[in-house]
Amino acid sequence: MVLDPIAVVGSGAYGTALANVAAETGRQVILWGRDPQAMALMADQRENAGALPGVALRDTVRPVSSLAEIAAARMVLLTVPSQAQGQVAEALGLVLSPRVPVVTCAKGIDARSGAFMTEIVAQALPQCIPAILSGPSFATDIARGLPTAVTLAAADEVIAAALAQALTTSTFRVYHTTDIRGVEIGGAGKNVLAIAAGIVAGRGLGESAKAAIIARGFAELGRFARAFGARQETLMGLSGLGDVVLSATSPQSRNYAFGLALGRGAAVEEAAGGKLAEGAFTAPVLLRQAQARGLDMPVSAAVEAVIAGRATIDQTIAALMMRPVRAEHEEGMR
Q1: Do the domains at 6-178 and 189-330 have one common CATH topology?
Q2: pTM value > 0.70
Q3: Which of 98, 124, 155, 228 is the most exposed place for a label (fewest CB within 10 A)?
């Protein structure tokens, strides 16, 4: 496959970092953002000062604000937030050529329709090839050239391998798989677990409690994934366990920081601090899909109840601790 030029749609910190990664492979890169003034300034200063200050754009990265500029792209990285993926993908349909791989980099589930991100891409861009990139990767680490490993999934193994190879550098290693749903569920679900871990830490419940909530939450995420036919090894890999380890332990994670603020007593509206916490959108739809399949997900349900204001943190903690005693492998099963 000829994967040059590459377009990165979304000029936030993650999109900008991935644009530099793609440029490091020797390809031409088109970086799109919706604000004409911001993109013109980025092109002039060769830096995304608002999102990644101090990180210079590589010479082959071209910032633009018109989607028409990416018509020549042979591969697209879609880095806008999950709840905006559908709208932006529909706009891309007006300019992209058939059979162009569109790799969603969002970790979430559409709150309105309950669709996974590759389903959103496939619906909006039926002429393109949907794929997903996910895994433990902070934008600042990528931008600084620190070692990072992620997973890319596409339905066709040959295409998945080609896309992974196109983005792999000496510091950014991309593994590949055909287990699209497993990668998507790991990326979306870990955000909810990160909020839960942040709440426990913010409440001062101790490291033991945080470890327990992460472990039990990961177990229920595995049950959820299996119900969708995902592979166990995918959930145990970078896009599952790897991302949980990163996001559920570091205040650099927006979802963990959101939970931390909730645990310390902040209102839901204040806890995000003006930043996007994808898990707040994912929790209710994750729970709806679990209930439709007869799956009990107590940790996710607790997070959703706190965010919705139906229960206090202390009430949810008490309810989790008072669940009937079972063998560990039976917990959460009906």
Answers
A1: no
A2: yes
A3: 98
**Rounded Cα distance, 182 and 153, in Å:** 9
Minimal CA–CA distance to 134: which of 99, 106, 100? Answer: 106
Question: Contact 128/99 with Cβ under 8 angstroms?
Answer: yes
d(CA 177, CA 175): 7
> Residue written as tokens 């090894």?
233
Ranges under pLDDT 70 in the chain: 329-334
For the domain bounded by 189-330, which CATH number is listed?
A: 1.10.1040.10
Domain 6-178 grouped into CATH 3.40.50.720: yes
For residue range 170-212, what is the model confidence (pLDDT) as tens digits? 999 999 999 999 999 999 999 999 999 999 999 999 999 999 9
Q: Does 190 qualify as catalytic in the annotation?
A: yes
Could you state, in order of their start, the residue ranges of all structural domains in the chain?
6-178, 189-330
At 334 the pLDDT is: 42
**Tens of pLDDT, residues 135-157:** 999 999 999 999 999 999 999 99
Integer Cα distance of 39 and 259 in angstroms? 33
How far is residue 25's CA from residue 164's CA, in Å, rounded to a whole number?
12
- The span from the CA of 293 to the CA of 285, in Å, is 13
10, 33 Cβ separation under 8 angstroms: yes
